Structure formats: C-alpha cells, structure tokens
Amino acid sequence: MNDLSLLELAELLLVASYEETESLGHANFFISVTEIAGNLGIVDQVQIIDACHLLEEKGCFLLAFDHVTALSASITPEGENYIARGGETGIIGEYQRFIASKRVASGELPGIEFEGFGGPHFEPAAPVEEISAGPAPVPPSPPAERGELKHIVASLEILINNDASLTGSQKADLIADLKSLEFQLLKTGPKKPVIEALASDLKKSPVFAALVEFLIAKI
Question: What is the DSSP letter of 130?
C-alpha cells in the first residue's frame, strides 16, 4: 500500500467504506474507517487521517473521532456521486471489479472467474460494527421481476462472451460490470447514479445497449 498516492488511498477508503455500508443494508450511518483501512492492510494512521481529511475537503465524508486513534465517517451524497463517476485515479473501478470477482468466486453471484484486484492485501472487508442505524430497507423486487432480470443478465453475458471484437480482458471487465450491475439491481433500494455508472461501458456497444437500457429501466 505504500506505493499508493494520497488521492488513490482516499478513493480506496471511500469505495471500500461504501461497499461495506451497502453490504450492511443501509448507507446513512457512521462506519469505522480505521477498521476498513485495517481490513485493506493499511495501518499508517497518519496516511489514513490525511486521506480522510482529503475526502472531507471534497465533501465526500463527514468525519468523527470516537477514540484517540479511531476514526469514523459517514458517506455524503456527494461521496456517492463521486463513486458513481468513477473518481479520478481509476482505483474505484478496480476495487469494484475485485469485489464482483469475489462474489462470483464465493457463489454469491453466478458467472465466470477473472483476475482480482491489486494484491494479497485486498480481501473482502470483515463486518464492521454499525454505530447508528439508518432508514429501514424497502421491500425486495417480486420473484417474477427478479427472474426476468436474471434472464436479461444471462443473455447479455452470452452476447459478451460471443463478441469476437472483444479481447479476453475486455470481456472480463464487461462481465464484471454486468455482475456488479446485477448485484445492485437485485438489492433493496438500488441507487440510480451507481447503476448508471456501472452500465456506462456496457451501453457503449450498440450490440448490448438496447438490452442494458431495458435492464436498468426496471428500477
């Protein structure tokens, strides 16, 4: 982690914190950035604090110190939009593809396996204790809608794998985006900016665009 710039470290903490809050089911509460950083193999407290202050300056984090060295943060709407835009360094997209690959490998999402992100330090974050509860989740989509969504995703995956104009790595990246998109769409209360960001590369191809538009129109 020592070769990361301050902005890369900040973006990594932001997206990892966001993924953790999403996995817990709601986003509007403070989460321990100290624990998130530890799960990523980042232990330099000065670097962590500097990165968090950078995110605070960008309007992405609301910060709170709950102990002398324990730092917590809540992700702001601007922080969510920053993630949806992909950030400035590219590390946000890399981390999201890594998380998608872990979900595929664990069986949480069906699909192919592909290379993960960045090295041995990057393992899925352990559960982080919730500090204050957020709003109750909305009911999940009806089973019929979920079945239709999965059918569309499966069709898109076949199209991607059969597209001779794409390299192997391009197919892997697009399928990673597709799996992340499916995961978002199957969640309770999916966030449209995140969905639009994940769908952007898929929609660049006229072969996939119509199905992708139909898919995200379901939200």
Answer: -
